């Protein structure tokens, strides 16, 4: 089989390139391609990875004869013609939570810089001056912040605003009253009404026909004198010409803008105002967010190229976005659980029991079934497994599915438990890394994020056993990176060890000889 080829057209974290190369792909980084050069280059490639600056148009896709997947190393896919990609059966996926904390923090950087004239004071100092009164600012405390768009980033901004003692109001017709209440946000329907009461306005909307120029002359006219306006979302939502006019008139005290109609942008109606704090689309640019976006998109592109489920596929998924948001992160967890079960049992189960617990129990869980089947069959599979065909694939392999919904996930918001002919594994996902955590295995409670290579040991618990394991692994030059021990009331223990280095047959033999009655599995995850 010929080597698969991935084209990367924008700067992404090295981890993405390393991950894809380690999978055996040829990865070519070609920055600053003109549209014509991209159309000429793309024909050969199986995958394309972009950020926001590459316009993936229908013309480019026409030239992309081999393309199977487009990965967006970030959140927004408005630079990709999704409809054209779907018509050509090309998966489009993104890393939807990779940079949300970073973007929320940048929003606060701008809000505070605007409130306290940080940039102007800095410029004055660098010009050799010492002035204080001109930079008198305003507090955030007890002021009203209006958040437009209470999605992932808007929600994080609301949480942070409350820590500053702000009164937070929000506008988002699709936000449930329960979510607003949990965020401590008062939902208001009327845009003009919110504009009239807000001291600060922060925009976290997508750019759509409805939101284009949502803030124009009429809205600015309604706003309080001295309002501060921040837009880290998309250009075009705030009419920049109108904003410049209201800055000039002194109605808007200051604004913080990260996104521009034409990017790169070196000239705009805002550039002449020192109280317009402008940043060059860097709301997502931190080491952490770029690392996450790179690591996540490399995994998804790999899944797509190998015919597995791409949990963040935007166009191919038959599921609505809210289901994808909730259930999607559990697809990799289920794949991992499936791989663990298949390696422990060594054969396909006759019955596969799947329990979706907590919030997951209220959702469409076909993605979870697909993930588990994908993991179970990953060593013998032909063809791809999708939420639509997972049950049929199970039946074809003689596996009887038994699906249960369990509203209580104990100490987690959600978790998934699977039982393959009596072998149990459960996982959850939390935190922004979205790394699957195994929380129960074969009835032993653990908390483990498995790595690519692991060892699983089960034995009669006795003092000194961990020391023996450590010594034998150390002698074999195998490094332990993480270890978790689960102990059962029957006196047995399960040890899950993430390792680097080669786990040889000789080492396995030595472990078996040293620990009587040892059950031992070498896992490649
Ligand atoms: N500057 C950057 O680097 C950067 C980084 C990440 C995201 N973004 C942008 O930030 C914005 C928010 O991203 P997100 O991940 O939070 O998106 P999201 O989809 O999670 O949230 C968007 C919210 O806007 C709401 N909404 C949609 N139309 C609306 C309307 N007409 N009126 C009011 N609310 C409406 C939706 O219900 C949703 O809750 C997007 O525009 C995204 O492109 C920018
Ligand atoms: O939507 C996003 O993820 C942001 O706008 C970031 O875009 P970038 O990856 O080009 O920085």
Topology diagram in text:
Elements: E1 5-8, H1 14-22, E2 26-29, H2 35-41, E3 47-50, H3 58-63, E4 69-72, H4 82-87, E5 91-94, H5 100-116, H6 118-126, E6 144-148, H7 152-163, E7 167-171, H8 177-183, E8 186-187, H9 191-197, E9 200-203, H10 217-222, E10 227-231, H11 240-248, E11 252-257, E12 276-278, H12 287-305, H13 321-327, H14 330-345, E13 351-358, H15 366-376, H16 390-396, E14 400-406, E15 414-420, E16 423-429, E17 436-441, E18 444-448, E19 453-460, H17 465-475, E20 479-487, E21 492-500, H18 505-514, E22 519-524
Parallel strand pairs: 1-2, 1-3, 3-4, 4-5, 6-7, 6-9, 7-8, 9-10, 10-11, 11-12, 13-14
Antiparallel strand pairs: 13-15, 15-16, 16-17, 17-18, 19-21, 19-22, 20-21
Helix pairs in contact: 1-12, 5-7, 14-15, 15-16, 17-18
The chain binds nicotinamide-adenine-dinucleotide (NAD) and 3-phosphoglyceric acid.
Give a description of the structure.
The chain has 525 residues and is of the alpha/beta class. The chain has helices at residues 14-22, 35-41, 58-63, 82-87, 100-116, 118-126, 152-163, 177-183, 191-197, 217-222, 240-248, 287-305, 321-327, 330-345, 366-376, 390-396, 465-475, 505-514, and strands at residues 5-8, 26-29, 47-50, 69-72, 91-94, 144-148, 167-171, 186-187, 200-203, 227-231, 252-257, 276-278, 351-358, 400-406, 414-420, 423-429, 436-441, 444-448, 453-460, 479-487, 492-500, 519-524. The strands form four sheets. Strands 8-7-6-9-10-11-12 form a seven-stranded parallel β-sheet, with helices on both faces. It has a six-stranded mixed β-sheet with strand order 14-13-15-16-17-18, with helices on one face. The chain has a five-stranded parallel β-sheet with strand order 2-1-3-4-5. Helix 11 (240-248) links the parallel strand 10 and strand 11. Helix 1 (14-22) runs parallel beside helix 12 (287-305), helix 5 packs across helix 7 and helix 17 (465-475) packs antiparallel against helix 18. It is globular, with a radius of gyration of 26 Å. The chain starts with a strand and ends with a strand. The relative contact order is 0.08. The mean pLDDT is 93. The chain binds nicotinamide-adenine-dinucleotide and 3-phosphoglyceric acid.
């Amino acid at each position: 089989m010929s080597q698969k080829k991935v084209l990367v057209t924008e700067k992404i974290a090295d981890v993405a390139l390393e991950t894809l190369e380690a999978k055996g792909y040829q990865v070519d980084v070609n920055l600053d391609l003109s549209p014509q050069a991209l159309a000429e280059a793309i024909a050969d490639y199986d995958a394309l990875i972009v950020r926001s600056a590459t316009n993936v148009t229908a013309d480019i896709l026409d030239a992309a004869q081999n393309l199977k997947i487009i990965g967006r190393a970030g959140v927004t896919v408005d630079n990709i013609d999704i409809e054209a990609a779907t018509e050509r059966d090309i998966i489009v996926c993104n890393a939807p939570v990779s940079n949300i904390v970073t973007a929320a923090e940048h929003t606060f950087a701008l809000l505070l810089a605007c409130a306290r004239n940080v940039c102007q004071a800095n410029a004055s100092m660098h010009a050799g001056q010492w002035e204080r009164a001109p930079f008198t600012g305003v507090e955030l405390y007890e002021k009203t912040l209006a958040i437009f768009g209470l999605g992932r980033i808007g929600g994080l901004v609301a949480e942070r605003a409350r820590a500053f003692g702000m009164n937070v109001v929000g506008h988002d017709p699709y936000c449930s009253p329960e979510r607003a209440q949990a965020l401590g946000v008062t939902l208001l329907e009327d845009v003009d009404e919110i504009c009239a009461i807000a001291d600060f306005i922060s925009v976290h909307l997508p750019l759509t026909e409805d939101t284009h120029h949502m803030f124009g002359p009429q809205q600015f006219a309604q706003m309080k004198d001295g309002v501060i306006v921040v837009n880290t979302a998309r250009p075009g939502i705030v009419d920049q010409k109108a904003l410049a006019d209201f800055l000039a008139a002194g109605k808007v005290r200051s604004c913080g803008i990260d996104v521009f109609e034409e990017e790169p942008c070196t000239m705009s109606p805002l550039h002449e105002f020192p109280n317009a704090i402008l940043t060059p689309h860097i709301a997502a640019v931190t080491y952490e967010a770029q690392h996450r976006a790179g690591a996540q998109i490399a995994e998804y592109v790999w899944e797509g190229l190998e015919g597995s489920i791409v949990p963040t596929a935007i166009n191919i998924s038959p599921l609505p976005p809210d289901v994808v948001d909730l259930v999607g992160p559990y697809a990799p967890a289920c794949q991992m659980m499936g791989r663990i079960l298949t390696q422990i049992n060594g054969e396909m189960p006759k019955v596969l029991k799947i329990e979706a617990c907590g919030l997951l129990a209220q959702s469409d869980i076909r993605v979870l079934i697909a993930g588990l089947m994908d993991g179970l069959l990953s060593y013998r599979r032909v063809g791809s497994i999708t939420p639509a065909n997972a049950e049929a694939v199970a039946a074809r392999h003689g596996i009887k599915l038994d699906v249960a919904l369990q509203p209580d996930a104990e100490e987690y918001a959600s978790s998934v438990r699977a039982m393959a002919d009596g072998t149990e594994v459960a996982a959850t996902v939390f935190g922004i890394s979205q790394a699957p955590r195994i929380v129960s295995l074969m009835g032993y409670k653990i908390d483990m994020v498995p790595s690519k290579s692991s060892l699983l040991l089960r034995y009669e618990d006795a003092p000194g056993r961990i020391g023996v394991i450590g010594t034998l692994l150390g002698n074999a030059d195998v490094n332990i990176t993480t270890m978790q021990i689960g102990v059962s009331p029957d006196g047995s223990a399960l040890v899950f060890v993430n390792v680097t280095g080669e786990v040889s047959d000789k080492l396995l033999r030595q472990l078996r000889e040293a620990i009587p009655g040892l059950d031992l599995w070498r896992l490649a995850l």
